[in-house]
From TrEMBL:
<feature type="domain" description="Small EDRK-rich factor-like N-terminal">
    <location>
        <begin position="1"/>
        <end position="36"/>
    </location>
</feature>
<comment type="similarity">
    <text>Belongs to the SERF family.</text>
</comment>
<dbReference type="Pfam" id="PF04419">
    <property type="entry name" value="SERF-like_N"/>
</dbReference>
<feature type="compositionally biased region" description="Gly residues">
    <location>
        <begin position="59"/>
        <end position="71"/>
    </location>
</feature>
<dbReference type="InterPro" id="IPR007513">
    <property type="entry name" value="SERF-like_N"/>
</dbReference>
<dbReference type="InterPro" id="IPR040211">
    <property type="entry name" value="SERF1/2-like"/>
</dbReference>
<feature type="region of interest" description="Disordered">
    <location>
        <begin position="1"/>
        <end position="71"/>
    </location>
</feature>
<protein>
    <submittedName>
        <fullName>SERF-like protein</fullName>
    </submittedName>
</protein>
<feature type="compositionally biased region" description="Basic and acidic residues">
    <location>
        <begin position="33"/>
        <end position="48"/>
    </location>
</feature>
<feature type="compositionally biased region" description="Basic and acidic residues">
    <location>
        <begin position="1"/>
        <end position="15"/>
    </location>
</feature>
Amino acid sequence: MTRGNQRERDRERAQARSGNKGKQPKGDGLTPEQRRERDAKALKEKAARKAAQASAGGINAGGGGNANDKK
């Protein structure tokens, strides 16, 4: 049995399975600076929502202690 080209055949099969996608550029049409600004704004909004939930006594609000601390 000849197995010399197994690696090449496996690469071809893997490429066929992936649909020849390869690396594609980001499709949002933003420059890196615009992307950073967008992401920073999203993180600030997320932090504000989390802080509001914690101050309102949400599910995850609390001291973060566990039951083993009680003696």
